[in-house]
Amino acid sequence: MATDNPTFPIPAAFPPGLVAPGATDGRPIDGGSLAELPEGTMRRVSVGDLDILVAHTPAGIVAVDDRCPHMSAPLSIGELDGCIVACPLHEGRFDLVSGDTAQMPSTGGLDADGMYHPTWSPAGKDPKVDPPGKKAEARRLTRVRRLHYYPVRITAGMIEVAIPD
Ligand code: FES
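That is the input. Now the predicted structure with FE2/S2 (inorganic) cluster docked in place:
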């Protein structure tokens, strides 16, 4: 979708390769009022079993799955700082404009390119102990993927988000 309102805030540009499958030719859904989503805030929009995070970043409005690319926690109850959203679990931080991981989760695991990152602890906390076993193996093999995007447009002050039909 394109925007019919060229004034700021506009839908943020996102990497075209990261569009959610089927969303480009999908149908628009109501993403809520733009006026009620000031910069620095975000909301969850749900349709059926699809939960979407709509966020107002300094680069514009973005819509991504409201599922952390690590272990699917809802990003909408995390913290938004500029273009970076912090997950409420495991300290993972994700760039809503580039789709990249800004900080790997504290559990460690694989990044989007398959590179292993060890467990870590926030400053001032004891080192994270990761006892061997199936859970540790699962964390080690969990891949933190890049975000997937849903095209956005602004129409008459309302945010519309394209989702797969
Ligand atoms: S579920 Fe988000 S960092 Fe783990």
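The longest helix spans residues 134-141.
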